[in-house]
Amino acid sequence: MNNNPVLECENLTVGYKDKAVLSGLDLALEPGHFVSLLGPNGAGKTTLLRTLSRHLPAISGRVRVLSRPLEEMAPLELARVMAVVLTDKVTPPLLTAFEFVALGRYPHTDFLGRLGPADRRAVEKALEAVHAADLAGRQFANLSDGERQKILVARALAQQPRILLLDEPTVHLDLKHRVEVMAILGDLCRNRGITVVASLHDVDVAAKVSDRVALVKDGRLAAWGRPETVLTGRAVARLYDFNGADFNRHLGSIELRGDGRRGRAFVVAGLASGAWIFRLLAKQGFSIATGVIHTNDLDYYVASSLGAECIAQAPMEKINGTALEAACHRMAGCDLVIDSGFAVGPWNRGNLELLKEALARGKKVFSLRRKAPGEIAVGNPEQWIACSDADGLLAALDAVVPPAARSATKTGTSL
Fold first, then answer.
1. Which CATH number fits the domain that encloses residue 346?
2. Beta bridge partners of 287
3. Which residues of the chain have pLDDT under 50?
4. Which listed residue, 12, 142, 228, 345, has the most CB atoms within 10 A of its CB?
5. Are 63 and 177 within one domain?
6. Distance CA 46, CA 60 (A)
7. Are residues 172 and 41 in the same domain?
8. What does the DSSP assignment read for 14-34?
9. What pairs with residue 253 in β-bridges?
10. Which residue among 188, 222, 248 closes a domain?
11. Sign of the C-alpha dihedral, residues 235, 239, 243, 248?
12. Helix residue spans in 80-116 (DSSP H)
């Protein structure tokens, strides 16, 4: 398999009649790549797919398939290299899944559409590729949405295409079938060299499966390239007009910020011990500060995405006096102090000083440890509130700051 583009767009404008939806598109799709089209509803993702599949004529510009102009290819010739799975509702009567998948062999059968031994083998292989061989004898109309989607992909594979276009392939699917379908599409790229072009709404999934992503908004291609480069927090926020959320490329996920209505919590964390606590606090309406954490720690990425103020320092450095002083100052202005139960080692032992300082200031410490570390003397046992898990922590927080207690006035800095 060479790396010559299998599909190219040159100054392409797509739309309906004289109304352009997307303009000036220049793309080159390589063999075996998974390409995700991302953008808000109405941005033109489906219109682009319908133009590439020749369901709609281009307003201007050119599309080439295997170096040939799209408009010059005969229908059967195009069907041998390109298959399409759109969101149109398909409910064929009285067809089994095998018979429905066999419809994909039309570019390869004779004039009467009769299946030969090679065609039947192709249908069987297509069903096996989507893990649906057990559905072959069932009526298509009786399948679940997830099962139908796999059969639709199998029908496309029966065409033995080089390019597969899909419009929202996981829409309306439950989590199990969503994961299965995306895994199947990824395998088609890696193991069969098929170029998959799919419009998606899930940025998290696109970041994990795509070789290239195209961001479309406001009638143009906003960005194109590898997801590791293109999907920055700022780019995704601009694409979807996020308010109160952030995409983090290191995590490959979107984090939703708290509104701070219940006050400000300082979390003494590190070594990935605080990530779930940050998310819990954000959901419960707390704004967050944390420290001292290292800048290569999972806690740092999650907290930053949630808009937390992070007192941090470089990796592989012992927590120093300057960082501790900044963390103590920030902790003093917070309503709550939470000890994540971080494992204590030579690099982060200094964080125990934060817990000591919190107790010395008369603050309560909500801790995910059964008891305080030996280095910490707890003079007043009521200050150290041991919480065994998330439920215990949430119950303890609710007892001190009831969910409705700060609905009228926000404490600290709202995120």
1. 3.40.50.450
2. 264
3. 405-415
4. 12
5. yes
6. 17
7. yes
8. EEETTEEEEEEEEEEEPTT-E
9. 248
10. 248
11. negative
12. 97-102
